[in-house]
Amino acid sequence: MKHTDVVIVGAGPVGLLLALELERAGASCVVLEAREQQEEVQKALSVGPLGAEALMRRGMGPELDALEARSQALMAPFLSGSGGGWRQSGKEGRRFAGHFAGISLLSQEQDRQRPTRLIDQRHLQGALQDEVERRGIMLRRPCRVTGVEEGQEALILTFTREDGQVERIACRYAVGCDGARSTLRKLGGFAFPGTDPTLSFYQVFVAFDGAHAVRPAGWQMQPGGVMAYGPIPERLFLVDYSGPPPEGQTIPTQMQVEAAIERVCGRGMKLSAYRGGRCWTDHTRLVDQYRQGRIFLAGDAAHIHPPFGGQGLGLGLVDAANLGWKLGAVLSGRMPETLLDSYEQERRSVARDVLDNTRAQTALMRPDPQSRALHALMAEMLSRDEPCAALGARMRGYTMHYDTIAHSADCPALGTLPGDQVLPDGRSVFGLMQQGAGVLLVPDQAIHAFQGLTIPGNLVLASWHEAFVWLLRPDGCLVWQGAPQERASLNTALVRWFGASLDA
Question: Which positions fall inside the FAD-binding domain (predicted)?
């Protein structure tokens, strides 16, 4: 029987990033995936800033740039001045920066500094898989996990290969990254409470026939729901409030899509071509806990919600970044196992906020007169910069604050994930983190007092022009700010998050 530190169930973007985090931390892992090949169904069209930055901290900035250039070339007709609802006129021609319940959000300064990246989830997953293979991380597919047995020293997973052979693998921990229908969540006995489905979503690729050949771009309120066309050519997104799809229907036929268009738009529109797609519903659920013994959950295995605003992918990537370095620190012996308790403490409340705002968007888009009146009022409010910026910051995760224990009234950024910045020597903060390290930023004039000290492992010392010290965890979270002479307080934070203090 093979032994490894961590078994990851699911080879989507969340599972693959977690594997890369563990590899950088020196932990061994095996990824088990039920599908024979990467799923080619269109899902998210973008990666939120916090999810993108989790990848940039591990050196994937160039890959993201290349993937975004590929997407932008494809979306160019919709992002240009002719793009209708995907680009807002006026306001100095500022670009469409997402939506809230189909209401366009104008880009703000924070969006230009830390942009949402226009990247197809399928292409991102391909890049992550290439990196996993390049680093020699074991990825086994297709294989289906069928059993879990927890002992005092290890967790044993049973899985079945494509040829029917049954194998077992022992590990210290297992992480379910296997999506909304998570096998590991079910085998682990996690409760998954939430709200039942009420509607149908369709994301399909079509060409319209005759008089309907040219569709207006952007989100369009319709009598029975919402139609959105673009920003990828031929992409059609429908929100059908007539009820959830039949049980088990995930791949709709052309006839079913045409029927859904008629229900949503109140009139029939024939398709001259149908290139496939998916249908799903608005289950909204959050696990009762993120951990059961040696089993953890991340991404859609822990939380599912309507796809509005493309928040799910970024939410899952930050789950992986948060859990990965903590598992690595515990497995290396640098940190006690109690560090793992902070994963649920930090991430569950973030997921709850996302579930709430997607529920609110679902309510705003209902086709009844009351909801449409509320939608119009919300659209008028979001045409102003201040409420638009506030809501955009919330959806992108900028308002998130982890409880870091260290508190400072002078540092509202404490417990957040600050963006990258260039240091005086030309290096970047994210560049210092590419091997999974945290960063201790010290004022230029005080750096000499720190250079003679023994710095805890997995921490990089660097200088900057600010007058205060920042301590950043490997996942980019700011966990301490203070003056260089506040050594005792800094040491408390270092022991809490890095397992050791500064020693002379």
Answer: 4-358
